[in-house]
């Protein structure tokens, strides 16, 4: 499908998620990594030096990438020369500054796939999980027209909801409308970046609080499940989500304990399991390189999914579910799990990038 | 109040909970530890030898106790000579066998306070949390009469519900009736005994399943909140609980994420916090030695309670709550925490024993 | 080199190391996995069922292997029909019984590559690290002749010494003879099998004792570094090793802190690093499928190697060293690390099997 | 002995060690905590507020202390008004600045007991472990005279050596002179302060490097074991120490694996154990409040000492040793353990303070 590899870049390349992007893009069939950008104090150094002492991943990074120079995030000129698409894993405390930084890339004609939360609620910017709302990409035309951008911006949602939202969507796709969801997440430390969670806060401990996480977990699904209006997404109504977010001493892999209530028609357990096992969507149909073959894997064992044992399912891109059982208060309970820095961050971002290419938004 | 110390024993003295009983009884103002019993292969050994290589607690056990001989659990004759009250932490796979073993102690005139689950649903045996349903002790008279026992049996409930049931009860006591509870527990490894959870199953991992635990967490509160009929407890109706139980890599301390809905009258956040902070009950009025001064402690920090930092509150006997906030699906959400082998096991058992003494059931 | 794949089996296929063998043999270029054996209570079940609830590895095992029937270890007849080489990861408390079990396979004409310790000190059985003492394979001829075996047995050494012995050997190969070694190991929990180390023993803890491990760490290197006599190995003399073995809360990867003294000629730090970096041996020359390209990798960072970050170097088959510095008491200090269930167990066993094939001992 | 409690302060009161000082001084029989100092951004706040969100210890701190105002470390005037002795747990990157800060307190007439490393090698400042070199306190007279101080400064050594130096000293006191020590430490994360070690660096991992720690571990014992000259300590000669320092995922408790060689006379194992068990020193003779009754506890179990099980021995002030056995390279091997933030930091500092009082240097 792709005759020449598309040159891509990473903004925030030295952080936890940035390093994961590097790892996943190192041998990508469609993309070639040609541009690395980070904050001013990394700029000018070779990547090897910029991550010295803060390298997180076991996998060795190819020498060619280790020797790439790191540019400043503000250096749009070089980015525009070097690549056509950037994956943004920038961390900036100021939301407006982050939006403006990403905007400059779109102005310069680049496609931006962002992990950052700054633009998630911008009206004309789609928040995408490719298996769920690929149709929201249509917003890009309006976005470019309104803003006069030759490039574009799309964002991916928070990592905390990746473990259960696709399974919920699969049920709705199968015709079972949900009304209420109570979800408790047990989230891995890699989700907090590096240095992130202090070891003294999490060893032999659990922290029942992650700033801003519950709000994102409750609200972002409504935009993702929303419907396209002319120039914006109308958030899904009639569905209420309540979230309890916890940090647990796990390296990678967010787990979600979910209780759900259906609006009218209630599926049987077998109908639910079938809806999950058979679920396929556009990324599978397009055979995108990072798409999991089976997006939702149901494990029949009593005690699965588990973070360490299931996070790497289908190279970390599948969601694993299990323990479907009746809920005394609602209709059903289940457990979901996904890899937070692959499916929930860099891998999910790359899948979004692949979708942009396959749909003709990046050439 | 107590002029002579009451001689007490421990059944299952070598296990995780048994060792905690030993630690807590070592310097008890009312009880003196005179009898230790365990399975046949420990019987005949001094306690020091019976726990060699499987000693779990940092605190040193007094030499006098280390030298006590361990008896077989079946040796009722010596138990009856040695003590008047036994704390049972027996683990037996067969429920009937466990019931019969405990019954023989009651037949022999001893009071039995059991941690085991075997008798929890026996009709004429009260399942007690002293702050909640001390009145259920009245069942003992019927129990002794019906069964011809000179002794008696009371049981304490599962450790998983101690972190949230007293806070719920305090709200109901304050006049706010609950209808629905969805609770997700994050439970410590010490709850599984020793050797219990294999390290390969829990390091860098979470296990979203504990056999039988969700059923206990959902059902036992209904008996505890039930009302006394002539010879039995009528379980509470109109309250539904749904539980998700997880094992996490924490040594001690069960945490619960709770969403609650009230039946009619809904308290304000301040009314809830006041109901908790001001809650006192019979153990406090009687000034029982193991009773926490303030049974429910509300922490105002965003990120509390936490197992390692709050489990030892008031010597491990208080329940710590925090993070009270609105629940989009129900009315409120909060987090509760208690020490599972103190409040939830040995400490809770001893408080029950103290209540038996204070109420005249053990003399 | 290999025109038809060689059928191989695993003895003790359901344990920790057995599962790692299955994983590594699933797509092996020379071997095809045709026979699985385990203890009597697994025999007769498909492998899927035999490991249900005790599956340790994240990687999915191919369905064809999951459906293989598990045989009893005692069932030599079927083993001899099914395969020509077996990897033994049997755990039996009785050393003689273990030796006799492995012998029956050699009698039946199979080559046995054993992870077990039973035969490590049997005079005519070589204990092999292919990069160090491949020449000891010559002992097989004597072994077969003396015992009348058509098959043969070779063993691999304990996992605890793999992190530092190849680096020490590389120095001696470069002409620098060692006289004294003091080594402290920090060993992963997977080395103890499953269920192995109880989580209550290792979370927020370290155990400074592993039964029998220090003796193996001190003695086995002397046989490996020994010289071939007619029918046996004469252990290396003039080298003394002292070991302190600790269990630490790490999933995989044994780390060794090593102080070394040379006999006469002392290399410079650069000579040592060069000896390590340039070290290649027979497995590399023969291009064995599991041989690491570079058996010893020197990391220049201050704080490496680390178990989680370096254990998977070259698919878990390389040894990573670092922190070479002067030792005030001896000559030098350094840190070594290897993956204990890959290089130190199943991967090391497979490399031995490949060497047997390449040298013509298995056809 | 003490008719009025002595008012004391803590410099660096909000850090990890500072909080431990607060906890240990809260109910001290000789000292009353009257002054808290920290960096400028804590100054002016009540202690409660200054530690909000970075409170590490489970034990509740008395309300009276939580309400104490925090002063700036530079505010000597108030310190001199408020107290007569300060415990310094200041962390400053610049060694000279730290020395000068502590000096200003001595100039102002206060006694300073410092945990910081800045003054450890200052010639006229003693580095004290009260059980070992209380006689070095005589240096204070010279110090005061030379410098014109009405106050004084003493320091305590690094936490890494507390687990094995007292046991080594006890052997020398018993007449067995040591010549060589190779020690590998497994050190707890609390030793790095807060936030200190990132969880991503230590969960499922070990870090074989702690900046500057090996040098301290090798050199500081020589000053402690040194002999008094007129105005300085002559470091011990004839003893060489080599250290390997590792960070492990343990909350509190440093463990040391030690190999030792004696110069001439070699004790038997029983002589060693007796030397340890019977060792008593000046703090025990003076019955100082924080002195452990038995400074060195020998555990006979194969697998002790262990950090979680032994760190709290005698309120965290005793050193626990075990596993005495022959060393093939040197004479003996053993394992030592101590609580790094109690014996190795705040508790050790307070014991030094008590010694100053008992010896008349603080009145």
Radius of gyration of chain A: 20 Å
Q: What is the CATH topology of the largest domain in chain A?
A: Dihydrodipicolinate Reductase, domain 2
Number of domains of chain A: 2
Name of the CATH architecture of the largest domain in chain A: 2-Layer Sandwich
Strand content of chain A: 15-25%
Number of helices of chain A: 15
How far the N terminus sits from the C terminus of chain A, by CA atoms, comes to: 12 Å
Low-confidence stretches of chain A: none
The helix/strand class of chain A is alpha/beta
Secondary structure: helix percent of chain A = 25-40%
| Overall mean confidence score, pLDDT of chain A | 95
What is the topology, as strand order, of the major beta sheet of chain A? 3-2-1-4-5-6
Tell how many strands the DSSP assignment of chain A holds: 14
Order of helices and strands of chain A: EHEHHEHEHEHHEHEHHEEEEHHEHHEEH
Shape of chain A: globular
What is the subunit organization of this protein?
homotetramer
> For the record, what is the CATH homologous superfamily label of the largest domain in chain A?
Dihydrodipicolinate Reductase, domain 2
What is the C-level CATH assignment of the largest domain in chain A?
Alpha Beta
Largest interface by Cβ-Cβ < 8 Å: A-B, 41 and 41 residues
Largest sheet of chain A, if any?
Answer: 6 strands, parallel
